[in-house]
Amino acid sequence: AATCLLPCSLISSWKLAWASLQRQSLHTAGRHCKARSGAEHLWLTRHLKDPFVKAAKAESYRCRSAFKLLEVNKRHRILWPGLRVLDCGAAPGAWSQVAVQKVNAAGAEPSTPVGFVLGVDLLHISPLEGATFLCPANVTDPGTFQRIQELLPGGRADVILSDMAPNATGVRGLDHDRIIGLCLSLLDMVPDILQPGGTLLCKTWAGSQSHRLQKRLTEEFQNTRTVKPEASRKESSEVYLLATQYRKAKGSVKD
Ligand SMILES: C[S@@+](CC[C@H](N)C(=O)[O-])C[C@H]1O[C@@H](n2cnc3c(N)ncnc32)[C@H](O)[C@@H]1O
Ligand SMILES: *[C@@H]1O[C@H](CO)[C@@H](O)[C@H](O)[C@H]1NC(C)=O
Ligand SMILES: *[C@@H]1O[C@H](CO)[C@@H](O)[C@H](O)[C@H]1NC(C)=O
């Protein structure tokens, strides 16, 4: 739980700083900050005041990003009991926690269908009741792809979530190109994994190549929209693409 209050993208870089802060009260943490650089201080001050961080702690989500998925789901209703979900870039597991609840993957609601959640990440993910984790594993690696197909009931998912992001270098153009590349690699797997009529939600960072991704999604899904949840920090270029009603899947439908 030590990492659960961090924005997931910062976990690796802040792990050490956080570990030392964990041993102190928030009050002393505030004072401790003053010794830090201006940017670190600013980040930490903002982080400690963040209502989504507080809510994540209160509701025991592993990280504040849970609220982004909760919000998208509230507005667009993409998860319901019985669905099979593939969560790409799942560590530390907050989206998987939300998915397990919404698709009833742990069978907590006896009167509704039981779904399935498979989370994949390069990093280790602590066990979660109702979820299956494949880690450490690279989603875009052909070997992983085969394991994903084997693990999904019926070999397909109804919903593919991707909060995957490369480690940011801070060079906006480069980071943008990399995340678009990652999304496009994921899209290459979609015909073999996504159920016709299915949904894809993927994280991007806005930039010059976004139209390439959008074009492909528009070709392959009946409906594509851009979503920027409230829980996504306004100053970040993060935007999610939500594509619904997947048109076709390799070898399963003729249209
Ligand atoms: C923002 S975090 C995800 C947070 C997660 N949605 C949650 O709520 O707990 C992004 C994750 O994507 C993972 N990632 C990036 N590229 C990946 C790849 N090629 N295969 C698997 N995971 C990847 C990173 O390791 C990182 O843990
Ligand atoms: C994931 O696998 C792809 C394809 O093998 C490779 O190009 C990419 O560099 C790998 N990513 C990481 C973070 O290892
Ligand atoms: C990001 O960095 C961490 C720690 O250095 C590493 O374990 C992880 O694989 C990296 N993620 C990507 C997407 O390259």
How would you describe this structure to a colleague?
The chain has 255 residues and is an alpha/beta fold. The chain has two domains: 3-11 and 62-246, Vaccinia Virus protein VP39 (Rossmann fold, 3-Layer(aba) Sandwich), CATH 3.40.50.150; 14-58, no CATH class. Helix content is 41%, strand content 19%. The protein has nine helices and seven strands. It has helices at residues 11-22, 26-33, 38-49, 51-58, 66-76, 94-103, 142-151, 172-193, 210-220; strands at residues 84-88, 116-120, 131-134, 157-162, 194-205, 221-227, 238-246. A seven-stranded mixed sheet has the order 3-2-1-4-5-7-6, sandwiched between helices. The termini are far apart. Residues 1-5 and 11-34 have low confidence and may be disordered. It binds S-adenosylmethionine (SAM) and 2-acetamido-2-deoxy-beta-D-glucopyranose (2 copies).
Compact summary:
The protein has 255 residues and is an alpha/beta fold. It has 9 helices and 7 strands. It folds into 2 domains: 3-11 and 62-246, 3-Layer(aba) Sandwich (Rossmann fold), CATH 3.40.50.150; 14-58, no CATH class.
Lay out the secondary structure.
Layout: H1 11-22, H2 26-33, H3 38-49, H4 51-58, H5 66-76, E1 84-88, H6 94-103, E2 116-120, E3 131-134, H7 142-151, E4 157-162, H8 172-193, E5 194-205, H9 210-220, E6 221-227, E7 238-246
Parallel strand pairs: 1-2, 1-4, 2-3, 4-5
Antiparallel strand pairs: 5-7, 6-7
Helix pairs in contact: 8-9
This protein binds S-adenosylmethionine and 2-acetamido-2-deoxy-beta-D-glucopyranose (2 copies).
